[in-house]
TrEMBL record:
This is FAD-binding FR-type domain-containing protein. One of its GO terms (molecular function) is oxidoreductase activity. Gene3D superfamilies: NADPH-cytochrome p450 Reductase, Chain A, domain 3, Nucleotide-binding domain of ferredoxin-NADP reductase (FNR) module, Translation factors. Signal peptide: none annotated. GO terms for cellular component: cytosol. InterPro entries: CysJ-like_FAD-binding, Flavoprot_Pyr_Nucl_cyt_Rdtase, FNR_nucleotide-bd, NADPH_Cyt_P450_Rdtase_alpha, OxRdtase_FAD/NAD-bd, Riboflavin_synthase-like_b-brl. Residues 25-162 form the Sulfite reductase [NADPH] flavoprotein alpha-component-like FAD-binding domain. It comes from the Eukaryota. Its cofactor is FAD.
Length: 331
């Protein structure tokens, strides 16, 4: 890129008229620090990025190829080159070596690293620090993103890889986002709960279970948890098994790849239709958490359809379902 001579010179970002809102760096920093901590070189290049690259290429063949990716008639080629293969910006820059992007256009051309949201996986007394009463203990449940495409090098998630490799006792800068939902507090803890989670969606459900158990006389709790394999993907198994033995929780499992016929959480919900109907009539709370809108829709259908078949009065049914507490955290 030809940035070696300026990489370690101090910049003064306070002189800039406008900056991306999600920068996490001292206003007086170096270009190298800016690149390492804020620019997302692992992102898939947009067509606009490739077009900008073409403007700064000194190779006619490179310029032509980059411009082709931006044309409507070459959308399939762009899809194969960038999207399907999950090719990164860094890999594109390494391929088109004639491109010399000006450092002063950094924020105009490159995407910045976007923040990642993670649900806190512990709640109630489990947030108490074991040795310091003034500190709060936070646990996360993070899936390590790693997969293969047509490219030789495996693809990895930027944030999950970072978390997997940071040394113990590292200090991280995070932002806490309060979530306003109708499911917390002592009054809600007395209501029956149906929690539906897949994968790392178990994190906020676990925190909610912890919180409910800190209140007096918590209502019955029913967890419908789905993932791929019981042996590898049954998160917090010992803790959940203990909660079942102690009578705090009922658990219904759906591990889709442990048998020939795939089983999902919506299948378990339909199997427990009578139990679900009773919870609806008893002002229950329904929570759905996971990484799929399709799953959330299927779960809602699995709850609503059997109830609609049993309650024939349309107006009564509409009134009951409209008043139902249904909370989702889907990403």
């Amino acid at each position: 890129m030809g940035w070696e001579e300026v990489a370690d010179k101090t910049l003064d970002l306070s002189l800039c008229e406008s900056l991306p809102t999600n920068l996490y760096i001292d206003p007086k920093c170096t270009l190298r620090e800016l690149l390492l901590n804020n620019i997302d070189f692992t992102a898939i290049p947009r067509r606009s990025f490739l077009k900008n690259m073409s403007y700064f290429s000194t190779n006619p063949d490179h310029k032509e190829r980059l411009l082709e990716f931006t044309m409507t008639e070459y959308l399939d080629e762009y899809f194969d080159y960038a999207t399907r293969s999950r090719r990164s910006i860094l890999e594109v820059l390494e391929e088109f070596t004639s491109v010399k992007l000006p450092a002063e256009r950094l924020f105009d051309i490159f995407p910045t690293i976007r923040g990642r949201d993670f649900s806190i996986a512990n709640g109630g007394v489990h947030q108490n620090h074991p040795t310091d009463k003034d500190e709060t203990r936070i646990e996360l449940l993070v899936a390590l993103v790693k997969y293969k495409t047509v490219l030789r090098k495996p693809r990895e998630g930027l944030c999950s890889r970072y978390l997997d490799n940071i040394p113990l006792d590292s200090i991280l800068t995070v932002t806490r986002k309060p979530v306003l939902s109708p499911i917390h507090g002592p009054q809600n803890a007395r209501r029956p709960l149906v929690a539906i989670a897949t994968g790392t969606g178990l994190a906020p459900i676990r925190a909610l279970i912890h919180e409910r158990l800190t209140h007096s006389s918590p209502g019955p709790m029913h967890l419908f948890f789905g993932n791929r394999n019981r042996e590898a993907d049954y998160f917090f198994q010992q803790e959940l098994d203990a909660a079942v033995r102690e009578g705090h929780l009922n658990v219904f499992l759906a591990f889709s790849r442990d048998q020939r016929n795939k089983i999902y959480v919506q299948d378990r919900l339909r199997e427990e239709a009578k139990r679900i109907e009773e919870i609806i009539f008893n002002n229950g709370i329904f929570c759905v958490c996971g990484g799929s809108t399709k799953m959330a829709d299927a779960a809602k259908k699995a709850v609503f359809d059997p109830f609609s078949e049993d309650v024939k009065d349309i107006e009564e049914r509409k009134k009951i379902l409209a008043a139902l507490t249904w909370w989702q955290e889907i990403w």
